Every structure is written in structure tokens, then in C-alpha cells.
Amino acid sequence: MGKVAVAAAVVCVAAVSAAAVVVVRHRMRNSGKWTKALDILKEFDDKCQTPISKLRQVADAMTVEMHAGLASDGGSKLKMLISYVDNLPTGDETGIFYALDLGGTNFRVLRVKLGGVENVKKEFQEVSIPPNLMIGNCEDLFDFIAGELAKFVATEGEDMQIPAGTQRELGFTFSFPVKQSSIAGGTLVRWTKGFNIEDAVGQDVVEELTKAMERVGLDMRVSALVNDTVGTLAGGRYSDPDVIAAVILGTGTNAAYVERANAIPKWQGLLPKSGEMVINMEWGNFRSSHLPLTEYDESLDNDSLNPGEQIYEKMISGMYLGEIVRRVLLKMAVEAEFFGDTVPSKLEKPFILRTPDMSAMHHDSTPDLKVVATKLKDILEISNTSLKMRKVIVELCEIVATRGARLSAAGILGILKKTGRDTIKEGEENQKSVIAMDGGLFEHYTKFRNSMQNTMDELLGEEASKNVIIKLSNDGSGLGAALLAASHSQYREYIEST
Ligand code: ADP
Ligand code: MG
């Protein structure tokens, strides 16, 4: 080899090794970033842990707060609202009734003909609420609702006509905290779940709806005002006498249950004949030092329309789960360049990742996680993800959903404890406790639902868990509201005597 050739070879080797060094450095930097991303995930996972011991503490705290909220108004974060429902449906209700369900992204109108449990005819329509009305003014919102209701009434068929000379009656499911003054009256305490209409707070929502119905020329009486949890409880009880509580896991979360009237110190009315009263817990506002809160929950809360409120709801419900995932991913993108050296701009947009999309990614069963890839591309405009990265995202969904599901199970254990149904008592070996469930999160997020059921079984133990049944009561709330309108009908005496 001549001198020149040798020199060329040396240069060549040097060039190759320089390139190799660049590649290695690049890999090291990448693996450093990868480690950092996994650290963020790991730290989040650690903070989200909900071992059984912790869940028991949460359940006990729930029971304590239930007592406090029943003792006095303002005695607890849990409002423990008195529903004025002291008689749940028996199955004997008859007649044609309307129901209206307002409480989240959609509202529903429903017409039912009641003729016994095996003979219910239902017709309904679902309308989405224009987002501007959710943060506008009271009159516009109620005019819109009354208008849609009037349109639905106009579709009444021959067999759905009420007797001549009578007035149509409605059960109004209004799923926000309301301080009731009677079965058909109550004032709005505050908004939740993305609604914020200032001039409606403190107003009687039945009066507001009645005025709006008058404005659109609809003659209808609001005979019952109920929360969706109370409606679900009533709807569930109609076909199953063992239903003792209802839990909603949808956009938000809440629960109602049947309490002994003499265990409600703040109840100042007459003791009902049944001895019972349905309590709307407003459990979404529960908070406790035992809740596994993370920095992401704290920042989500700070940036929300209702900071400091609905902390339990913000860890559990459909409105928030996808948003928690987004916040963790954003941190991974910013601090660990998880998606490359620029932060995907869509990822910075609050609430862009919805829980149904999170659920679709979490349930992705394709070997190469195609669904995850598609969601990332369509929603966040992130492409070229590796399988390894997509696995991390599924893992993140698992952490967030599992925490929410296990915390909901702990809440239910709190109710069972309060009502003495968490263990099997002598002589009550066959007493079943059925929890009527509703809401899109519970209905559609299979891994969430399964995790909740497994946690419930784990918390109760083999024996007691046989007697506690978690049951989907699909749109029980609409039927329940109609049933409560029936049992509080202005024509009740007449119907009962004929
Ligand atoms: P609302 O709570 O508004 O009355 P729903 O009970 O229908 O209404 O619940 C809707 C919520 O359920 C949505 O906001 C969403 O968070 C959640 N949800 C709906 N579909 C799914 C799904 N496939 N996977 C997970 N969550 C879902
Ligand atoms: Mg609902």
C-alpha cells in the first residue's frame, strides 16, 4: 500500500468511527430520554397505587363523611342531599308520563306508558346540547330544552295520548347538585361537569323549566325533580326489589342510596311511613387525604372551571380520565422528548384526548397496536411511533383507568358499610344488595368495569361478594324519573281509586 493509500485508509477508518460515535451518542441520548420517559411513567404509577389497605381507608373516610353530611348541612364535603323520595316504585304504577334528563353532554326526552313491569312502552330522543348554551345564560338553556321537549311532544302517537282534560306530567332528571325543598322543587347549588351558567345558580330549576315551557306554549306539569342517581335507583327498584343504591359513572360520577329516615339528623320533616329516604350523596365532591392525588390531578384541578371541587370525580369520571392521560403524555413529551425533539402542538390542547378514545387505545388487541397508532395520528397528529412507545401509552391508560375503577369500588364499599351490608349478618345470609349502575363510562369502558368488579370482590371477600350485585341499569334514570312523576302525579288519588 502506498503512502497515499494508507493515509486514505486511515481517514476512512476515522470517518467510520466518527460516524459510529455519533450513532452511539445518539442512541445514548435516546436511551437517556427513553429512561427519563419511563421514569415519569413509573413515578406516576407509584403515586397512583391503590392497594387494598388504601381502598379500605378511602371507604372508611367515605362512611365518616356520609355521617357528617347527614348530621348537618355543610357538615361535610358530601352534601348528602335529601331527595324527598321516600317511596320507591313498586311495579304497580300506571299511565303515560314524560321524562327529561339533563346532566351532561346530551339530554334525553322520554315518553313512557306504564302498565306493569312487563309492560312498559318507551319512546325517546337524544339531543346534544350546543356548547355555547352550557356557559351562557339560564333562559337560553331552558328555552332550548323546552323547545326540544315541545317538538318531542308533537310526535305523540295515538296510543300515547293522555286522557282528555288532563295535563301531561314530567319527571325532570337534573344531574347537578340541587337543594330540594319538595319532590318537585329545588334550587341549584352549583354547576359541575363543564356547565357554568352563573345566573342559574340559586334558582329553582323547576320554576325555570316551567316558565320556559310556558314561553314555548307547552302545557306540562313537572311532578318530580330528581337527580340521575335517584332516577336510576327508582328505575332499578321498579324491576328489582333488592336495589339499594345507584351509582353513575358517565361524564361525572355520583351515587344515591336508601337511608333510614331516623338516621338523618338533619331531616326536619315528618318521618315518612316507609321509614326510608333516598339520599343523593353528590359523592363526586368527596375528598380525603387517602386519595392518591398526583401533580397531574392537581394541575387539572387548578385549570378547571371548579377548582378545589369534585376532586373524587376528577380522578374517576369520563370527563377527566382522557385528560389525565394527556397531561402525563405532555410531560413525557416536554421533559423526555417522548415524541421527538418538538412537542406535538395538539398535545398541548386541554381535553383533546377524550375518554372514549383512551378506552379504544386501552382495549387495542392488535399485535402492533394499530388502534393506538391511528388515534395518535388522528387526534394528536403524531405519526411514526414505535411499538415500544405505543405500549407505554397503553400502560398509561391502564394506570389511569385502574385507579379510577378501584376508587369507585372503594366508594361503593363506603355505602355498603354505612348501610351495614358489607358483611353477612346472621339471619340475613340471603339478603342481596344490588347496586344499579348507569353512565357511558361504566357501560362502554370494559376494562374499567371489570377492574371495578374485581376490586369489589377483593374488598368484600368471597362470601359477602356473592350477595352484592353490581348491575347495569341502562337508562334506568329516565324510566325512574317517569315513575316518580307517576307516584307524585296530581291525579294519583284518581288513578288509585279507579
Ligand atoms: P352523561 O354522563 O353525560 O349523562 P353518559 O352517561 O352517556 O352521559 O356518559 C357519557 C360519558 O361516558 C362520556 O362523557 C364519556 O366520558 C364516557 N364514555 C362514553 N363512551 C365511552 C367509551 N366507549 N369508553 C369510555 N368512556 C366512554
Ligand atoms: Mg346521564
From TrEMBL:
Q: Where is the Hexokinase N-terminal domain?
A: 41-238
Segments forming domain Hexokinase C-terminal: 245-486
User: Has the keyword Ribonucleoprotein been applied to this entry?
Assistant: no
Q: Which GO terms describe its molecular function?
A: ATP binding; D-glucose binding; fructokinase activity; glucokinase activity
Q: In its UniProt record, which GO terms are filed under biological process?
A: glucose metabolic process; glycolytic process; intracellular glucose homeostasis
Class of the enzyme per the UniProt entry, highest EC level:
transferase
Q: In which family does this protein belong, per the annotation?
A: Belongs to the hexokinase family.
**In its UniProt entry, what is this protein called?**
Phosphotransferase
